[in-house]
């Protein structure tokens, strides 16, 4: 008698950052399949974020014959399946089994190009298919693939909840911590369940989605001499100094593509992400470009 060990996807989490995936003014989620694939070919989540299971979850993965795999756009968890019926995990997964994964920031300029308020800095974001009992009933649940809902400050835990969660972590796990993903086999909503009532895996395997929006800023151009701006240009004087011009509206920061802003019939350069300055009320952000 011969037999083989087989693994199948249990669930997947995609993490999309639109700074890397949009192309100038063309948004990633509006692209056709060919352009979407092209954008994803050059996308590497691991260049700016690290996602890994907690120490406790690492032990759970071993105990339940589960395997964690990083991908260029997130991660997946695979399960060993039964040889007689590969729609069931080899080891039954309890409804209350939860697996936790830490999101840590690797790029020090992450907040420059990510559309989150400065007040979010230092807070712990939480993405789960079940709400913590210490949070309000309105606390958002993790999104399914295709929801395309951008992360905002509503995903941040209260200081009390964040402190309780961080007590479970080692000093290394707390370093540069943005947040955590915690997924239960049975969710608060059936649409977010990973396994069915019978213990069978969802088919297809459940895919969850986190989306970081790219920041939009006012582009400020600082010239050495008066560039003679006109009303039909895409920029205007910011104040009394004719050598300082700003875009007439906020413009998106993207790694790829080009946003056309005209001055005197010529395109102005697009800014990088290094010089980002909030105004005093943090209601607008400025990208500075020295000409």
Description:
The chain is an alpha+beta fold. It folds into two domains: 7-212, no CATH class; 216-290, no CATH class. Helix content is 13%, strand content 30%. It has six helices and 17 strands. The protein has helices at 18-21, 33-41, 55-63, 110-113, 159-166, 171-174; strands at 7-17, 49-53, 66-71, 74-80, 98-105, 125-128, 143-144, 177-184, 206-212, 216-222, 235-237, 244-247, 251-252, 262-263, 266-267, 276-278, 285-290. Strands 10, 11, 12, 13, 16 and 17 form a six-stranded mixed beta sheet that branches. It has a five-stranded mixed beta sheet with strand order 3-4-1-9-7. The protein is elongated, with a radius of gyration of 23 Å.
Write the layout of secondary structure elements.
Blueprint: E1 7-17, H1 18-21, H2 33-41, E2 49-53, H3 55-63, E3 66-71, E4 74-80, E5 98-105, H4 110-113, E6 125-128, E7 143-144, H5 159-166, H6 171-174, E8 177-184, E9 206-212, E10 216-222, E11 235-237, E12 244-247, E13 251-252, E14 262-263, E15 266-267, E16 276-278, E17 285-290
Parallel strand pairs: 1-9, 6-8, 10-17
Antiparallel strand pairs: 1-4, 2-5, 3-4, 5-8, 7-9, 10-12, 10-13, 11-12, 14-15, 16-17
How much of the sequence is in beta strands?
25-35%
Biggest sheet statistics: 6 strands, mixed
In quaternary terms, these chains amount to: single chain
Number of helical stretches of at least 4 residues: 6
Any low-confidence stretches, pLDDT <50, length ≥5? none
How many beta-strand elements?
17
